[in-house]
Design a protein that fits this description.
The protein has 79 residues and is mainly alpha-helical. It contains four helices and no strands.
Amino acid sequence: EETGKTHAQVGLNWLLQRPTVVSVIFGARNEAQLRENLGAVGWTLTPEQIARLDAVSEVTPIYPYWHQRGFQERNPLPV
């Protein structure tokens, strides 16, 4: 609501702003869906909005990765 965009547009825009994403491929069954998806470009989310989306979409790592997070001094995460 704070962006004035649809959920699909916010999601696609968030993906496009992620540093590890090179491109986003989306599908549309009709012209209305295509136009909605294209509304994801030409604007940016604020850093605060991106941080909130990152937080709610974070995936809990499976074992042994969640366990290894406790040993970051000994095994620092790759940059």
